[in-house]
Write a structure and sequence with these properties.
elongated, about 90 residues, single chain, mainly alpha
Length: about 90
């Protein structure tokens, strides 16, 4: 049975059951999210790592990037390939 009014949980099922004088099972049943709705918003179902051409574990390791820029995400922990200023080059 799906929840009639799905919502964010303001507390644990045990806390809410004690507050309203009902069983924990009743609280969980009322708060349940329909499976189709859950799967529609599931990251595993969307598989964003496939559109980026990487494995799921790599996608998590890079901090769930939405898109790659220049081969790596901007928030990637890897060092950039650009030389830092003052390490040679044409600058005085």
């Amino acid at each position: 049975m799906a929840a009639k009014y799905p919502m964010k949980r303001p507390g644990t099922a045990r806390e809410l059951a004690a507050r309203f004088g009902v069983s924990v099972r009743t609280v969980r049943r009322v708060q349940a999210q329909p499976r189709a709705e859950y799967e529609a918003s599931s990251i595993s179902r969307a598989k964003p790592w496939e559109s980026l051409g990487m494995s799921r574990s790599n996608w998590y390791r890079l901090g769930k990037p939405e898109r790659l820029i220049g081969g790596l995400d901007q928030n990637s922990p890897r060092p950039s390939t650009d030389p830092s200023p003052g390490t040679g080059g044409d600058h005085p």
